[in-house]
């Protein structure tokens, strides 16, 4: 099968090196790599409506977790009821109102999966839907891929979340994942037709095979099979930790490497890029927007290695972001980041966003999402430029000197958490939302006092209401 990925520039030959590439699917926006894939919640970019995504952001690729949609029995799932106008049309694309040229990547679980109370079984993965926990069988998953038709499928993997798996469990993880990859690629590409494209449309989703977050030796047989028998049917690799970048065999180095991990800071992303990562999911973009925190860093590529030496190191590292809940911004009428070309910075100022946050007005999160995604777009563009200039290593060192190594702590309250996000996996875990009705406790006390006073309370009877002068009780009753 044709691999939709080409390396444009690599800082050195072989696998473990930063590289600039192009991921191009027919009729879709090309993705220049390294880059990030935007995380969605139920198919939507959180806080941004599709028209704003189209007009005010550069978002062109979406990661969708199937578990977001599994809140009913499979036969009555709304996403599967969407009519197709031709057999290759994507029901998922129609359902989430994604643009025709957005790259749609579907995984069984969300980019930040919640730990499930159930364990995975021999032929199913435990998931958490908005209606509770569930197990998704591999055969059902394959059927849904067939019906939903995303552009790229992240293969089923038996992953252990929330604990370190023992030796026996690790063996099972590899055996099951190996079997899933074999069965899925057989199912998807069983027909001998050209599965990649006919020049205009992708007929079958491309398959990204998972690499388990285990050591090389533990998944040796699986990796060998990926290099050999499975190789023609695999179009990319999905990785769950940075260490996996080091165990990818050389013969698979022409496949795009998609890290579905949770980097904490941009410095961590840079380290993964240096190891050859091409695509990322970056949960901190949305998490910081929810926390009222605006990204404020710039990666600066040097034009030449000589120019690199001239870069000055600041006396104290600068913060990577700042907290717009802070009262000091209440009268600050400059853009979020000076010189930022995003819609939020062009049209509004810090004081306005501080006000929106204080008022719990959801426009605050929309504007922060636009800005934070834009900062990451600029970051990756500069990273690609730096690799092309062959100054990446020095530019990373300079970035690490220039900025603090952690984001500021969230101080303000984000939007109220709903559905699966509010799921508490352990008995000792605190509730995710602060009680919203705490301040009504005073009112309850007042109501109690009013039993003897002249104020009527909701729990009174007809006599009580009459006594308080609301209405007269009818004699007929
Ligand atoms: Zn901005």
Automatic annotation (TrEMBL):
Any Gene Ontology CC annotation: cytoplasm
Region (Disordered) location: 448-477
Keyword Zinc: yes
GO MF: metal ion binding; tRNA-guanosine(34) queuine transglycosylase activity
Key word Metal-binding present: yes
GO aspect biological process, one term: tRNA modification
Swiss-Prot/TrEMBL keywords: Cytoplasm, Metal-binding, tRNA processing, Zinc
Residues annotated to bind Zn(2+): 340, 342, 345, 371
Domain of life: Eukaryota
Listed SUPFAM superfamilies: tRNA-guanine transglycosylase
Compartment(s) of residence: Cytoplasm
InterPro entries from the UniProt entry: QTRTD1, Queuine_tRNA-ribosyltrfase, TGT-like_sf, tRNA_ribo_trans-like
Signal sequence region: none
Domain tRNA-guanine(15) transglycosylase-like: 18-404
Names of the cofactor(s): Zn(2+)
Pfam family, one: TGT
Cofactor annotation remark: Binds 1 zinc ion per subunit.
Subunit comment: Heterodimer of a catalytic subunit and an accessory subunit.
Function: Non-catalytic subunit of the queuine tRNA-ribosyltransferase (TGT) that catalyzes the base-exchange of a guanine (G) residue with queuine (Q) at position 34 (anticodon wobble position) in tRNAs with GU(N) anticodons (tRNA-Asp, -Asn, -His and -Tyr), resulting in the hypermodified nucleoside queuosine (7-(((4,5-cis-dihydroxy-2-cyclopenten-1-yl)amino)methyl)-7-deazaguanosine).
Family: Belongs to the queuine tRNA-ribosyltransferase family. QTRT2 subfamily.
PANTHER family for this protein: QUEUINE TRNA-RIBOSYLTRANSFERASE ACCESSORY SUBUNIT 2
UniProt-recorded name of the protein: Queuine tRNA-ribosyltransferase accessory subunit 2
Organism: Talaromyces pinophilus
